[in-house]
Amino acid sequence: MNKPIIGILGNILITESGVFLGIEKSYVNSDYVESVLKGGGVPIILPVSSNEDVIESQIQNIDGLIISGGYDVNPLLYGEEPSQKLGITYPKIDDYYIKAVSIALKLKKPILGICKGMQLLNIVYGGTLYQDLSYNEESFIKHRQDTNPQEGTHTIEVFNESKLYKIVGKSVNGNSFHHQAVKDLGKGLKVSAKAKDGVIEAIESEDDYFVLGVQWHPELMTNNSEIMVKIFKKLVEESNK
Ligand code: MN
Fold first, then answer.
1. If you measure from the C-alpha of residue 182 to the centroid of ligand 1, how many angstroms do you get, rounded to a whole number?
2. 49 CA to centre of ligand 1 in angstroms
3. I need a surface site. Which of 10, 62, 97, 107 has the fewest CB within 10 A?
4. Which of 154, 178, 217, 238 is catalytic?
5. How many Cα atoms sit within 13 Å of 174 on the Cβ side?
6. Is 16 noted as a catalytic residue in this protein?
7. Sign of CA dihedral 142, 173, 98, 166
8. How far, in Å, from the CA of 93 to the mean position of ligand 1?
C-alpha cells in the first residue's frame, strides 16, 4: 500500500556568515519530518514559490498538508497596521503560505497547521490575530516558555465534540512558543481548545473535512509523547482516504 505524501510548507533562513552570507536557504526543522514518519506518512518539504502554477502543482501532488511554524504573520493580511510589539515578518513566505493553503482548501486536502500555521489558517478563513499577547488583557500565562521544548508547560483544555478531543482527549500539557494568538475567529472555523487564560490553543473546521490548527508544537514532543504522535497519525489517516 502506498503511504500518503504529506507536504510540509517550507521556511526561509538567511545565511548569517561565510561565503554564502545573505543567501536564502529553504528548510523545515527536522522534527516535522520525523513526526510525519512516526505518523506513517511520507514527508516532502515544499519550498516557497511565487508562481501560482507551481504552487497548484505542489499541492496537487500531496495527499495532506502541514503548515509549519515561523515568523509572525504580516498584519496587513488581516487588515491591520503593524503594532509596536510585532516581531519579524517575512511577507514573501506569508504570500506563499496563503496561496498554498487556499489551494489545499479548494482541493480538500487534509490540513494540520502548527503555531504560526494555525494563525495563518485563521487568516485564510477571514480571522484576525493579537499581534502580541500583551494586547490581550485577559492573558496571564507564560506562552513563551524557557523550558525544554519537548516539555509541555501549560494546560490545554480541549472542548467536547471537537475533532481534537477525539485525538487527544479532554486535556493535554502543551509546550508554548508564541507571542501572538487568534483574536477574531475566521468564518467556518470553531475553537477546539483554550489555555486557562482563554487564549485559543486549537481551531478546526466546522464540517467533517479535516482542517486542524494547534498553537503549540506537537512535532517537538513526539519523542516522549504518544498523544502528540496521534495528531500526525490522524493527519496521515485522513490523507489516506
Ligand atoms: Mn500557549
1. 11
2. 30
3. 107
4. 217
5. 33
6. no
7. negative
8. 23
Please, which pLDDT band fits residue 3 given cuts at 50, 70 and 90? very high
Catalytic residue among 115, 154, 204, 238: 115
- How many angstroms is it from 205 CA to the middle of ligand 1? 20
Grid cell of 155 as nine digits: 494546560
CA 28 from centre of chain: 12
Q: Cell 526561509 sits at which residue?
A: 12
- 64-119 pLDDT, tens digit each: 999 999 999 999 999 999 999 999 999 999 999 999 999 999 999 999 999 999 99
Give me the residue label for grid cell 493527519.
Answer: 235
Contact 62, 11 (CB under 8 A): no
Nearest residue to 203 (alpha-carbon basis) of 195, 193, 216: 193
**Annotated catalytic residue 178:** no
Q: What is the DSSP string of 64-89?
A: EEEE---SBP-GGGGT-PPPTT---B
Taking the C-alpha atoms of residue 75 and residue 89, their distance in angstroms, rounded to an integer, is 9
34: its cell numbers: 520525523
Cell, residue 15: 545565511
CA of 148 to the centre of ligand 1 (A): 14
Q: Is residue 112 within 8 Å of 67, Cβ to Cβ?
A: yes
Quick check: is 206 catalytic?
Answer: no
Q: Of 55, 48, 94, nearest to 71 (Cα)?
A: 94
pTM, 2 dp = 0.97
Measured at the CA of 204, the angle between CA 214 and CA 136, to 5 degrees, comes to 60
Residue 149 and residue 219: Cα distance in Å, rounded? 10
Q: Diameter of the chain by CA atoms? A: 54
Residues comprising the chain, all counted: 241
